[in-house]
UniProtKB/TrEMBL annotation:
It comes from the Eukaryota. This is Uncharacterized protein. GO terms for molecular function: nucleic acid binding.
Length: 89
C-alpha cells in the first residue's frame, strides 16, 4: 500500500436468526411457551394457534382473557384471520 492510499475492508452482514415465541399467561396461571425458529408463514402461524391456543385457553378455566398479537404479516394474513374468525377469537 502506498502512502496516501486507503485500505477498504468489506464486511458481510448476515441476517439474524428469526424466532417467534408464542405463550399464554395470566395473573392466575402460566401456559406453555412455544418457540418457532426461522420465519413463520401464515400456514405455520395457524398451526401454532391450533396446537397451542386451545390447550392454553383451558388453563384459564373460563376466566376472561385477551388475545393479543403484533401486526406481523403472518398474523394479518387471510389464512390466519380466517382461522381466528372460525374459532371466534
Amino acid at each position: 500500500m502506498h502512502k496516501g492510499q486507503r485500505q477498504h475492508n468489506q464486511h458481510t452482514v448476515q441476517k439474524p436468526t428469526s424466532v417467534m415465541v408464542w405463550g399464554c399467561i395470566s395473573a392466575h396461571v402460566m401456559g406453555d411457551l412455544h418457540i418457532c425458529e426461522g420465519t413463520v408463514n401464515a400456514e405455520q402461524n395457524a398451526q401454532v394457534l391450533e396446537q397451542h391456543r386451545l390447550p392454553s385457553r383451558l388453563l384459564f378455566q373460563g376466566r376472561p382473557g385477551l388475545f393479543q398479537q403484533e401486526n406481523a404479516k403472518s398474523h394479518s394474513a387471510r389464512i390466519t384471520l380466517t382461522w381466528l374468525h372460525s374459532k371466534r377469537v
